[in-house]
TrEMBL record:
The keyword Oxidoreductase applies. This is NADH:flavin oxidoreductase. Keywords: Flavoprotein, Oxidoreductase. Gene3D superfamilies: Aldolase class I. It comes from Nannocystis punicea. Pfam families: Oxidored_FMN. Residues 5-326 form the NADH:flavin oxidoreductase/NADH oxidase N-terminal domain. The keyword Flavoprotein applies. InterPro entries: Aldolase_TIM, NADH_flavin_oxidoreductase, OxRdtase_FMN_N.
């Protein structure tokens, strides 16, 4: 192993991450009904900061009540959420990690059951799923309100004392619905060409950059190709988007790969990491996530050109992964674990219930 994984890295705004290990954003449903961060949610994240993660990122946090996509989702849309956000930011910083909030609007994935409103998206479209609610097509006021809400949420995140935000452009949520050539059928300046489909996330990136202090990190997460709810994406458009977001001033780009052992679907002989590295200026770090388990898996992604590795499932099961990764014989727990074992890893019963959908994480004794 080259050893780069555990060495510090200076970001271009001067902040130093103590290593290249990043806690991936993980929805955990532990917030209060009004979006306020709960003590259990704080404990889950602080425990990973104490375990040595260089960067600790929250779950997708909704920036407006009409953008909520999950029960118990963290919110950054109201000042009533600020005191507990302050405590969370302070806890992460106290343990030596860089703390980020992932900013999100669900678009069509924000059910009326949670928001009390019909969902809206780039266009009106249908999907063959029983629970699917046909969204109304956004009018310009919806788009402007969402841009303002992202800006206010970023200001609130900075006021709470976090080191930065990540705009959640991956996985087919509002930004992804606008980026999509299938979900976005608009004929105005917000649809059609890729420049128009990328306008929403780019406008928000520029607005958030301008609204927050120079030392505050502004990044973006994207999906490179179709997977799950992310549809209508094209690898070359995603590479163009990476370059554009760098022009817009993002401090890092996070590519959600789901499985870093795989090459791209469009060019099966090419791995996505060197392609995204080449699309970005040298001073914009590339973060990658997807099926990274061991320190050797992680080092391989750095050798391919990534600057950080984001860990999801393995971080749930191994809160001290970065502290233990220095040992070359370290074999992380792969699960599944019982609810009691997970509780000892600062995973509350609420989070355990959400994780039950991942059979490889939770098992009943
Ligand atoms: C329980 C769970 C919740 C997740 N929540 C989010 C989320 O809120 N935002 C996001 O961008 N990705 C989310 N993801 C995706 C992860 O950030 C990560 O990209 C993915 O799990 C692949 O990494 P892994 O193989 O290390 O788990 C979630 C994944 C899991 C398993």
């Amino acid at each position: 192993m080259s050893g780069a994984l555990l060495s510090p890295i200076r970001l271009r705004n001067g902040l130093v991450a103590r290593n290249r290990v990043w806690l991936a954003p993980l929805t955990n449903q532990q917030s209060e009904a009004d979006g306020v961060c709960s003590p259990a949610e704080q404990r889950w994240l602080e425990r990973r900061a104490e375990g040595g993660f260089g960067v600790v990122e929250t779950c997708a946090a909704h920036i407006a009540p009409d953008g909520q996509g999950f029960d118990g989702q963290l919110g950054v849309w109201g000042d009533h959420q600020l005191p507990r956000l302050r405590e969370l930011a302070a806890g992460i910083a106290r343990a030596g990690a860089i703390g980020l909030v992932q900013l999100y609007h669900g678009g069509v994935r924000s059910p009326s059951r949670l928001t009390g409103r019909r969902p809206w998206s780039a266009s009106s479209f249908t999907e063959a799923r029983p629970e699917f609610e046909v969204p109304r097509a956004a009018d310009v006021r919806d788009i402007e309100a969402a841009i303002d809400a992202f800006e206010q949420a970023a200001r609130r995140t900075a006021a709470a004392g976090f080191h930065g935000v990540e705009l959640h452009g991956a996985h087919g949520y509002l930004f992804g619905q606008f980026l999509s050539s299938t979900m976005n059928q608009r004929t105005d300046e917000w649809g059609g060409s890729f420049a128009n489909r990328a306008r929403l996330i780019r406008t928000v990136a520029r607005r958030v950059r301008a609204a927050t202090p120079a030392g505050f990190l502004v990044g973006a997460r994207i999906s490179p190709e179709d997977f799950g709810y992310a549809r209508g994406l094209d690898l070359d458009e995603s590479l163009q988007l990476a370059a554009w977001l760098a022009e817009d001033g993002v401090d890092f780009l996070h590519v959600s790969l789901w499985d870093t052992t795989r090459n791209t679907a469009k060019r099966p002989d090419q791995h996505p990491i060197p392609l995204f590295r080449a699309a970005l200026p040298a001073d914009v770090p590339l973060v990658v996530a997807g099926n990274i388990w061991t320190p050797a898996d992680a080092e391989l992604q750095l050798e391919r050109g990534a600057d950080f590795v984001a860990l999801g499932k393995v971080a749930i099961l191994n809160p001290d992964w970065p502290l233990r990764a220095a040992d070359p014989s370290y074999q992380p727990e792969r699960g599944p674990l019982t609810p009691a074992q997970l509780h000892d890893l600062a995973i509350s019963p609420t989070f355990v219930d959400y994780l039950r959908r991942f059979k490889t994480i939770v098992r009943d004794a």
